[in-house]
Design a protein that fits this description.
Layout lengths: L11 H5 L1 H19 L13 H18 L2 H8 L1 H22 L2 H7 L3 H8 L4 H15 L2 H7 L3 H23 L11 H24 L11 H8 L5 H9 L14 H59 L2
Helix pairs in contact: 2-3, 3-5, 4-5, 5-10, 5-14, 8-10, 8-11, 11-14
């Protein structure tokens, strides 16, 4: 990948997506205004904690790096960066919003008219699980992905849909809205995470063990150039094509398409295991802590009951 630095030829707009940066900045400002000044306008509102604020800032930076920095441009050039984008965006950034958005704001959001219907799916964990993994697998079918990458509107809609389905899929594990008695038990949450990994495996296996490149938009010059229109201004791309500077991804890397594809599948699988490993550890710790708290509460109530019975017994002796 010696020539990856050459992506600078596509210009500032393609490399740094200033419009997406502006969107991220506006969302961040609005979030902090709501959670530090206007929180008392919401039922159950409270000030934002320092931990929540820090995680939110880090997450928004990750969101911009994933979909707005040169990583996004590289995701259209090399399949390995595409899978890096998928893994970080869908399996790290999406669930992290549960760690930084306060419970009262989640409660308000999931009860908005349209969003309420979407999150109704989240109350059926099996449906949420199948929807995300099904959409992810369908998106990565060669004919579907190549078609989407040649249409900016459809591709953006597909990415937004995948991101929303990812947020919905993690709702049964991390939500702060439902009463505690309606949450899945610790064991079921662990099994749910394993289920996500199992359902992602077929798509990764297809990509890793394929004997030939699957995606025309990463291998064939004309299809690749059409796909590049998603992130490179048309005038810049036309100028580069007219000068004969680029004709395909081979200008930027010496890696063969099949090796790039296999690397992408491996990146997705490895990062999935890393992210899910942390989630499993977090869930197990919280499950253990909750069980201890329940045991202590049960013991306290038993002792209190025994004390009251003793006092009653003394009164009637």
């Amino acid at each position: 990948m010696e020539n990856l630095s050459s992506i600078s030829i596509f210009g500032f707009m393609a490399n740094w997506s200033p419009f997406f940066f502006t969107f991220i900045a506006i969302c961040t400002v609005v979030f902090f205004l709501i959670t530090t000044r206007w929180y008392d306008e919401f039922e159950g509102g409270r000030p934002l904690t320092r931990k929540e604020g820090s995680i939110f800032v880090v997450n928004m930076i990750l969101l911009y790096i994933t979909y707005g920095s040169p990583v996004d441009l590289l995701s259209h050039i090399l399949f390995s960066f595409h899978m890096l984008q998928m893994a970080v965006g869908l399996l790290l950034v999406a669930p992290l919003f549960y760690a930084c958005v306060p419970e009262y704001l989640w409660r308000y959001l999931v009860n908005l008219p349209v969003i309420k219907q979407l999150f109704y799916i989240a109350k059926k964990p099996l449906v949420a699980l199948i929807l995300f993994n099904g959409a992810f697998s369908i998106y990565h079918l060669p004919v579907i992905m190549d078609t989407l990458k040649m249409n900016a509107t459809l591709h953006t809609l597909a990415l937004v849909t995948l991101f929303l389905l990812s947020v919905i899929m993690f709702y049964p594990i991390f939500n702060k809205v439902e009463p505690r008695e309606n949450h899945m038990g610790g064991l079921f949450k662990l099994l749910y995470i394993f289920g996500i990994g199992m359902l992602l495996t077929p798509a990764c296996a297809l990509i890793i063990f394929s004997s030939s490149p699957l995606y025309a938009t990463f291998t064939e010059g004309d299809a690749w150039l059409s796909a590049m229109e998603l992130c490179v201004p048309s005038g810049v791309l036309e100028g580069l094509k007219g000068q004969g500077i680029i004709s395909g991804p081979e200008y930027f890397t010496n890696t063969s398409p099949i090796h790039d594809q296999q690397t992408g599948g491996i990146i997705m699988k490895v990062l999935q295991e890393v992210f899910f490993g942390f989630m499993l550890g977090f869930i197990f710790y919280r499950w253990y802590r909750d069980e201890r708290e329940d045991e202590e509460e049960t013991t306290r109530r038993s002792l209190e009951k025994a004390r009251m019975q003793q006092e009653l017994h003394k009164q009637f002796r």
